[in-house]
Design a protein that fits this description.
The protein is 38% helix and 22% strand. The protein is α/β, with parallel strands linked by helices. The protein has two domains: 118 residues, HUPs (Rossmann fold, 3-Layer(aba) Sandwich), CATH 3.40.50.620; 127 residues, HUPs (Rossmann fold). Strands 3-2-1-4-5-10-9-6-7-8 form a ten-stranded mixed β-sheet, sandwiched between helices. Helix 1 packs parallel to helix 2, helix 3 runs parallel beside helix 4 and helix 7 runs parallel beside helix 8. It is globular. The protein starts with a strand and ends with a strand.
Length: 259
């Protein structure tokens, strides 16, 4: 499972994802699979060939082209379970295609995928760097899924990881959240990953933590924010909106999602 899956809708906005997939392929010494799902507006095979040629040239790695027909979310999620280590995909942002009252498609997608997903935007920084990863403390029981993905990416790219927590006056974090924070720090230390613990007093009036996390990541020059795609029991009622805010952040900071 040393392959990177990169779904593409062959639009200009998805070109950024091609560059990130190529960079990760080169770093991870991985092959790359470009997946195009033919939905209502099929594009030409020639465009997919050009995209594959670009990725192959930039990464120096083997590129496989796959075309499927049907619902994009289902087809991408199904393919993610077949021999891939990561997925790299682009989001068109909060006003992208196929929006619905249930939330952004990108959040639905990363929650259904079988592998960690790096979500980028059209304005995500190029050239690609992965030298600083901000990992907000998460209260999930499955937090090791995120830690494993971050460790693998950090080790491969030589990145420093920030374990980040917003501290609100009078707000007592749950015991599970605090235990996970200690676990994150211990895992990173045991794996020899350069890391820092960052505790930041709350400076943003918001029900959640997305806005302050984005501000911190931007100010720290972070190349990636790492989150759990699914909601935890803590603040579940605002989790979807907060995660969508992170995935479509205005600075285009890539977001690594684990389930």
């Amino acid at each position: 499972m040393n392959d990177i899956l990169c779904p593409t809708d062959l639009t200009p906005a998805s070109e950024t994802a091609l560059h990130y997939a190529a960079a990760m392929g080169a770093k991870l010494n991985a092959s790359i699979t470009l997946l195009h799902v033919v939905d209502k507006e099929p594009r030409t095979v020639e465009v997919l060939h050009k995209a594959a040629a670009l990725v192959g040239t930039e990464s120096g790695r083997q590129v496989r082209e796959v075309m499927r027909a049907g619902d994009p979310l289902k087809q991408i999620a199904d393919e993610s379970a077949h021999g891939h280590a990561y997925m790299v995909c682009a989001t068109h942002g909060p006003k992208g295609l196929r929006q619905s009252l249930l939330g952004a498609d990108i959040l639905k997608l990363v929650r259904r995928c079988a592998v960690p997903t790096l979500v980028v935007q059209a304005n995500s920084p190029l050239p690609v760097n992965m030298r600083r990863i901000v990992m907000p403390v998460a209260a999930h029981a499955e937090v090791d899924h995120l830690i494993d993905a971050v460790i693998h990416l950090a080790r491969t790219c030589g990145a420093t990881v920030e374990v980040f927590q917003v501290l609100r006056p009078g707000d007592q974090p749950s015991e599970h959240l605090l235990n996970n924070k200690v676990h994150m720090l211990h895992r990173l230390a045991a794996e020899g990953i350069p890391h820092q613990e960052v505790n930041e007093p709350s400076t943003v009036f918001s029900a959640g933590f997305a806005e302050q996390t984005i501000r911190h990541a931007h100010g720290a020059g972070a190349d990636c924010i790492a989150i759990m795609a699914r909601a935890s029991d803590d603040h579940r009622w605002i989790a979807d909106a907060e995660k969508e805010r992170l995935l479509t952040n205005e600075h285009g900071i890539p977001v690594l999602c684990a389930v």
